Fold these 2 entries.
Entry 1:
Amino acid sequence: MELWQQMIRDSIHTVDQLVEKFNIDRKVAEDLDEFFQARINPYYFSLIRYPGDPIWLQCVPDKAELDDFDGEEDPLMEDSMSPVPNITHRYPDRALFLVTSQCGLYCRFCTRKRKVGDYEKISMKGLESAFQYLEQHTEVRDVILSGGDPLMLTDAMLEKILQRLRAIPHIEIIRLGTKMPCVLPHRITPELCEMIKKYHPIYVNTHFNHPWEITPESSRACEMLANAGVPVGNQMVLMKGVNDDPAVVKELLQKLLKIRVRPYYMYMADETKGANHFRTSIETGIEIIENLRGHTSGLAIPHFVIDAPGGGGKIPILPEYVIHHDEDKIILRNFKNKVYVYKNYKDKNNPGTKKNGKTSGKNSKSKIKEIDYSKIELPILEEVES
Ligand code: SF4
């Protein structure tokens, strides 16, 4: 058994352990176990500095999870966009492929907790129909392996999946969505890196949320992946008490760059059942991005997005830098709130001229004008408020 597997085995996961280690009332611990089981491996547990700190909040079950009646089991509607078991196909040229239900840590904010940890819900039996779907759908050029965490598979099992995907000519890119470099970095071994190298281009999206997660062990893991030619990006979720502070986020993103991880996305927390207590305001997120843009390298600045409820996909949110925009000019403010005018270039291929009273052209301002808002279906107010 490898060290990382031993650490999974030694994880805190029983009701007795929750009562003993975290002083949780037994009945509450039983209800939490029923709602979403715990798994806290010894490495991640060692990062906790005091009760209720940003590491604790992410992994220790909390009674607040049971008080959330508003959240959705599947806020991103992944299951309704699943043409065959284990596949979610939301975007035109890429597909999500769930290859295991297991993770190195069960994160309390997880958006897929309806499936994570349940061998029945992400089953190995679904792999064959998933491969066949990917073989038949020639528009899919990018496959994201997820779960659970694909690095919970052994090297041999993961290699079988990579071999099968690489045999599909239209699949150009394979991505691994894995939290292991952050939560159990011992999983990144020289043998794993040697194996992955055979199937390039492979990208890794990992998931650090707080600067305390950047340790000698996690730094080494990310550098090993980078040395194996794997570009590593980070997806961070904005969470109350964890990272809803511009200084914390800036420190995290700058430290990620030092270990060769490129900040990729910063998400608003999903409207997931049991995770309401993690949610922050959109203004908090905008303030964080405002405090980054201009104040640190663009390399450190992720796309700030909302993964739209109902399966709308990732939609970017930006602080308002455009003060005015017409056919002749755009008036902008910079990060110091100084105002600048940029004169428009009259592009004969994209003139933005008026036709039938409407402005046309390829620029986004024109496209906004062309939207007929009367045709947009809005949610019924009672449903939003219920
Ligand atoms: S590692 Fe990812 S899939 Fe697993 S519990 Fe955490 S957020 Fe959910």
Note: Residues 353-360, 363-368, 381-386 have pLDDT under 50 and may be disordered.
Entry 2:
Amino acid sequence: MERDVLRYDLHMHSKYSKDSFNEPKLMILQAVRMGLNGIAVTDHGSIKGGLKACEELRKLKSRGRVPDDFEVVAGEEVMTDAGEVLAYYIQDEIPKVPLEEALDRIKEQNGIASIAHPYSRGVIRKAFTADIEKVLKKHKLDALEGFNARIVLDGGNRKAQQLATKHNLAMTAGSDAHFLSEIGRGYVEFKELPGGLREAVKKKATIPKGSNRLAFFYRSITLANVLRKKI
Ligand SMILES: [Zn+2]
């Protein structure tokens, strides 16, 4: 299959988040069905879903159910005092810590750090509240989320893209799926490079894409997940 342009959905949740029931194996199969080349599993405060998905990917590949070049990135949506940060390619879970510590910990693990939905808040999510210029002086931030399919008003994504451009940051994008049917509603597109996604982020070559048409619907029904999990 032609792999000139790759599509990765870089924000989604599994059953290891308190507001989702998604099974990692089914997430991978759904992503393949949607024509994606890779996903990042980014549970709230947990790396378990990401690690589990990597394990499931190996099994699925050995049975020939998933293309050999499909990639799963283990990640986490880390809660900080200044909003949420998406951490990619990490090995150790990061608890809720101040923003600057979260960025340091991601860097220590040779991970990629991206600010999640900088202009969107909700019942669970937080908008970004730190002064980005100050943060960038001392800490390494690779990207910010230029498209999140759960942002109800288009302005939130547009402003995020402007912010990334202003500070010369790469952009990540994702569905923020809490249900399987959302996977692929947001993604980055990039030309295949030898260094894969890492190189694309480094070169600021990832293009955010997707549709937020059902954002309000999906965010509303996610609240039911939170309640069901508490019972
Ligand atoms: Zn999320």
Note: Helices lie at 24-33, 48-62, 99-108, 132-138, 154-166, 196-202, 215-230.
